[in-house]
């Protein structure tokens, strides 16, 4: 039995969001009503016209200044046969407040459509305004920044911290770090990553960070501190499956004791440049088990001049790449720059590991000279 005949023109018009079709030469062949509303033009002004001529009659149209960037993205998709995405920003005067300027933001994705001969026949161009998402992201970033501690000496020891949000993401992730002075010549170093994005993740992050900071001050051993945090996480909506690495440093005994709740292993860089990943005490993320259970911990001796490094997944994970490749890349960077002071080492690691252009995930990094 033959299936129903599909009206692809109707499907195209019903697609969510603003969508247009162009030839590889950037001539419009179709556009849905949402696209026409977004660019503020009629169908007659768009269909059959060349992209750079969109705004010839209206140079003050909201997205006119972005045409060259849109054109470059479309041409990349046509030439490479791969989808191309881009974030766009345009500043315009607030019509309700003369003299006041507002930023508006869009995301665009350009997808090549191939013909029977395997060549690019059309380009599917989708545009979405994300101004409200960006503003919410800025609020979440401000909240997250207020919750994270500033770089500071820990007792007589030196540490460097870095936090890099994903530039192109619409929402902030729940990455966090902390350095906690403990009684005597001791301290705790923590890095964690909450599942989710935006204000909810930032709120969960703040609760977990405060709870773990308090636990590290009064509880002996990182495993026990994570056990207490795990119990608390069961009472916080959105805290399940959070990953955390916790390290207790004792300069009197020259010992690093660590425990991980599903987090990437801390790295210990020796004074000769050798890098050791602390991966002998890893357990599932917070509240991931149906029942509470004790967590493991392990200890390793250090010497003066060694470097402790904690980080979140944005530093090493790449799409379609094995995690071991990222860990090897981190080890190589630490080995090459191990003699640098903490601040320079942090900058060097970020420079070596973060991809050129906009990062696709948030990154937290803590470096402590032992």
UniProtKB/TrEMBL annotation:
This protein's record includes keyword Hydrolase: yes
Protein known as: SpoIIE family protein phosphatase
Coiled coil location: none
Domain PAS: from-to ranges: 6-72
SMART domains hit by this protein: PAS (SM00091), PP2C_SIG (SM00331)
Pfam families for this protein: PAS_4, SpoIIE
Protein keywords: Hydrolase
Species annotation: Streptomyces adustus
GO molecular function: phosphatase activity
CDD domains: PAS
Positions of the PPM-type phosphatase domain: 157-370
UniProt xrefs under InterPro entries: Bact_Sigma-Reg (IPR052016), PAS (IPR000014), PAS-like_dom_sf (IPR035965), PAS_4 (IPR013656), PPM-type-like_dom_sf (IPR036457), PPM-type_phosphatase-like_dom (IPR001932)
């Amino acid at each position: 039995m033959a299936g129903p005949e599909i009206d692809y023109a109707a499907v195209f018009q019903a697609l969510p969001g603003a969508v247009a079709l162009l030839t590889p030469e950037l001539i419009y062949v179709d556009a849905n009503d949402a696209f026409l509303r977004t660019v503020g033009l009629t169908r007659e002004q768009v269909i059959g016209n060349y992209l750079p001529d969109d705004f010839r009659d209206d140079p003050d149209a909201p997205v006119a200044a972005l045409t060259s960037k849109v054109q470059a993205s479309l041409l990349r998709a046509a030439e490479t046969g791969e989808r191309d995405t881009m974030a766009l920003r345009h500043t315009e005067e607030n019509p309700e407040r003369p003299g006041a300027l507002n930023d508006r933001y869009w995301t665009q994705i350009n997808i090549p459509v191939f013909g029977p001969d395997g060549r690019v026949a059309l380009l599917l161009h989708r545009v979405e305004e994300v101004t409200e998402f960006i503003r919410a992201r800025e609020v979440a970033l401000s909240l997250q920044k207020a919750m994270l501690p500033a770089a500071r000496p820990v007792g007589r020891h030196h540490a460097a911290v870095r936090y890099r949000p994903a530039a192109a993401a619409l929402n902030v992730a729940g990455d966090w770090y902390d350095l906690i002075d403990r009684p005597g010549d001791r301290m705790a170093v923590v890095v964690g990553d909450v599942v989710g994005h935006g204000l909810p993740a930032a709120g969960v992050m703040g609760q977990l960070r405060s709870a773990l900071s308090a636990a590290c001050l009064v509880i002996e051993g990182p495993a026990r501190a994570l056990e207490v945090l795990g119990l608390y996480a069961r009472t916080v909506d959105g805290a399940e499956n959070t990953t955390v690495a916790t390290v207790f440093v004792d300069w009197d005994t020259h010992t690093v004791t660590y425990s991980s709740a599903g987090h990437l292993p801390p790295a210990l860089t020796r004074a000769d440049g050798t890098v050791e990943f602390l991966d002998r005490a890893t357990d599932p993320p917070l509240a991931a088990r149906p029942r509470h259970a004790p967590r493991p911990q392990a200890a390793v001796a250090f010497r003066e001049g060694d470097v402790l490094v904690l980080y979140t997944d944005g530093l090493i994970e790449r799409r379609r790449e094995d995690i071991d490749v990222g860990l090897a890349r981190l080890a190589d960077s630490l080995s090459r720059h191990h003699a640098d002071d903490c601040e320079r080492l942090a900058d060097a690691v970020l420079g070596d590991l973060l991809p050129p252009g906009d990062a696709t995930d948030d990154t937290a990094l803590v470096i402590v000279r032992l």
